[in-house]
Design brief:
There is one protein chain. With about 170 residues, the chain is mainly alpha-helical. It has one domain. It has eight helices and no strands.
C-alpha cells in the first residue's frame, strides 16, 4: 500500500534464471561479498562492494534481459524487506549484524530464489547505501538499479563483469 503511494508500484517480476545452477552460485557469491562488506571500512569495504557488483554483473551477463525483472523485484520486495530491517533494529551496528546473519542464512532459507532473492538483496544493498549516503532513498524509481546506486555511493568503477576468469579470481579472494 505504501509503495504505490511513493511511486514504487508493485511488480510481479519472475526471475527463474536464479534457480539455475549458475544463477544460484553467482547470486550466493554476490551475497557473500555483500556480507563481508558489512564488516569492513574504507578501502576494504570499497573492494568488497566492487567484488559484489562484479559478481552481480557477471551473473546478469549470463542471463541477458533479466536485469529489468531483477531490479523490479528488488525495488518492490527488496525495499519492503529493507524497511522491515530498519524498523526492527535500533542502530547501524545492530542492522549490520542482523543483515549479515540474514545474508549468511540465505542459501538454506528457501529452495527457490526466483521470487525470494530480493528479500535478501534489498536489506544488504540498503544497509550499505545507508552507510555511504543518507539521501539515497530520495532517488529511487521503479527502474532503479541498486547495484549502480551502490557503485556511485562508494565511488567504485565496476567493469561489465563478463570475464569468467576475473569473476573466479575475485571469488577466490573474497
Amino acid at each position: 500500500r505504501v509503495q504505490a503511494g511513493i511511486g514504487l508500484k508493485p511488480a510481479d517480476a519472475q526471475n527463474g534464471h536464479l534457480d539455475s545452477l549458475e544463477g544460484r552460485i553467482w547470486l550466493q557469491i554476490e551475497w557473500r561479498a555483500l556480507e563481508h562488506a558489512f564488516w569492513q571500512q574504507g578501502e576494504e569495504r570499497m573492494r568488497d562492494v566492487a567484488d559484489a557488483l562484479y559478481f552481480r554483473n557477471y551473473r546478469r551477463s549470463l542471463f541477458p534481459a533479466t536485469e529489468t525483472n531483477e531490479n523490479a523485484l528488488e525495488m518492490n520486495e527488496g525495499m519492503a524487506e529493507y524497511t522491515g530491517f530498519k524498523l526492527s533494529t535500533s542502530s547501524p551496528e545492530e542492522y549490520a549484524v542482523a543483515v549479515a546473519a540474514w545474508l549468511r542464512s540465505a542459501p538454506t532459507r528457501t529452495p527457490s530464489y526466483g521470487r525470494s532473492f530480493a528479500y535478501t538483496s534489498g536489506p544488504a544493498y540498503g544497509g550499505l547505501l545507508d552507510a555511504a549516503s543518507k539521501d539515497w532513498r530520495t532517488r529511487l524509481t521503479p527502474a532503479t538499479n541498486l547495484g549502480q546506486l551502490l557503485a556511485r555511493a562508494y565511488g567504485v568503477q565496476v567493469p561489465a563483469g563478463t570475464n569468467k576468469a576475473e569473476a573466479l579470481r575475485r571469488a577466490e579472494l573474497s
